[in-house]
Design a protein that fits this description.
mainly alpha, 240 residues, 7 helices
């Protein structure tokens, strides 16, 4: 690890092997992972979520009763929908991470859009059919129908927001960033959305713990663009 510059605040550098000395806490970034494996995991979870949706609908229609759960039919439906939501969100997080490891090309507009919205699409499939069929079920109790539909709509909204990738990247953008910085170490904070080339960047002054890794690792961690301060600093250095 390259020697870090001193800062005005006492911090601790934690090296990969666990040794420490005073300065700033810097953690080594984990490996990027396997995009294919993550995508397979996401699809499996989404299919399981759809299965729970079907089960929730069957319980709602009275076709199935979970005798091992001594609670009302409505409560059973809500539990199935809640598990549905959990699986949808976990699957979407895996899918989003896979897209940052192996992003789609912007040259194929349809695939790029689908790849970056697959989590939202899965969420719609996992809730909208239940909502439609529940609302159109003429045999269901009106109160039960209303509550179940409202719960499903709320979960649809939560799942959709959690599944949407607010920070997508294309294959071209990733290739450009990697060509620019290669294996140069960059840094990012636990809750930031950018990476930094300067370990003492002012944007990280209030962070005691940062992570270091390559640009590829930063992008895999959902830090898809360079900090503006570091970008201006690097440009100034190049012109000197």
């Amino acid at each position: 690890m390259a020697e870090q510059k001193k800062t005005s605040r006492k911090r601790t550098i934690v090296k990969a092997e666990g040794s420490a000395e005073t300065k700033r806490t810097i953690k080594e970034a984990p490996k990027t992972g396997n995009a294919t494996g993550l995508r397979i995991g996401a699809v499996v979870l989404w299919l399981a979520a759809i299965g729970l949706e079907v089960l929730a609908l069957m319980i709602f229609c009275g076709n199935v009763t979970l005798s091992f759960l001594p609670i009302s039919t409505l409560a059973q439906v809500i539990i199935m929908l809640a598990l549905d939501l959990v699986l949808v969100i976990i699957g979407s997080q895996l899918w989003k991470k896979s897209n940052h490891i192996d992003p789609a090309s912007e040259k194929n507009k349809l695939k790029f859009w689908l790849w970056n919205n697959m989590g939202v699409i899965a969420c719609v499939i996992a809730f909208v059919p239940f909502i439609v069929l529940a609302l159109t079920n003429k045999d269901a109790d009106a109160k039960t129908k209303k509550i179940a539909s409202i719960v499903a709509v709320v979960m649809l909204l939560i799942g959709g927001i959690a599944s949407y990738d607010f920070n997508p990247i294309s294959a071209e953008e990733k290739a450009e960033a990697m060509a620019e910085y290669g294996d140069t170490l960059v840094y990012w904070t636990p809750f930031g959305k950018v990476y930094h080339t300067d370990v003492d960047c002012q944007a990280m002054n209030r962070t005691d713990t940062i992570t270091e890794g390559t640009v590829e690792q930063a992008i895999a961690a959902n830090r898809t663009r360079l900090c503006k301060y570091c970008e201006n600093r690097d440009a100034a250095i190049e012109t000197e």
